[in-house]
Amino acid sequence: MDKNTVNKYFGKTWKPDYKHYEHSGWALLDKVAEHETVLDIGCGFHLFKPHWGERVYGIDPANEEADEVVGIMEFQTDKQWDVAIALGSLNFGTAEDVEPQVEKAVSLVKPGGRIYWRQNPGIGDHPWKGVEEIQFFPWTFDLNYEWAQKYGCEVVECKWDAKSDRIYAEWHKGQ
């Protein structure tokens, strides 16, 4: 997958709309305790920052609103967070592209921490010009269970996000 095409599309064309996601949108505000730190992977316009303040750190390779303009594979840190959210950001290319990103996302979460996902099942249904050039990875329920286990996590929830054609998943990282 050409990163420049993805970054151009998400940096210049794409617009967020969390109200369409019953589980992987604003409902996440209630799932994170006041003492927990959050890594927002692919934070886009960093919409959770006003709610979580300095407890959230956003990375995004295409949006200047991020705390750090960087992709997950280029992100360098020794820190781990209590919670990571990946709301549509680890969804591009083939399994060879996405699986290393999933492994890295898990490594950035503290033992006992959680990851909240919004996953695209491989459909390019965005209404904006340029979407036809993006290769969406075909996430499945089975793949959630397979990769979670492979990387030391347990899938606590995996279901369709009620108002959309996206998968909502919650993984807990083992101790």
Annotation keywords:
175 residues; alpha/beta; six-stranded mixed β-sheet; 6 strands
Molecular structure report:
By secondary structure, the chain is an alpha/beta fold. 21% of the residues lie in helices and 23% in strands. The protein is built from four helices and six strands; from the N terminus they run αβαββαβαββ. The chain has a six-stranded mixed sheet. The longest helix has 13 residues, at 95-107. The radius of gyration is 15 Å and the shape is globular. The chain starts with a helix and ends with a strand.
Which term fits the overall shape? globular
What ranges have pLDDT less than 50 throughout 5 or more consecutive residues?
none
- Cα Rg: 15 Å
Order of helices and strands: HEHEEHEHEE
Largest sheet: 6 strands, mixed
What is the tally of beta strands? Answer: 6
Distance between the termini: 34 Å
**With helices defined by DSSP (H or I, 4 residues minimum), what is the helix count?**
4
Strand order of the largest sheet: 2-1-3-4-6-5
Q: Work out the strand percent.
A: 15-25%
Structural class: alpha/beta
Chain-averaged pLDDT? 89
Helix content: 10-25%
What's the gist of this structure?
By secondary structure, the protein is an alpha/beta fold. The chain is built from four helices and six strands, in the order αβαββαβαββ.
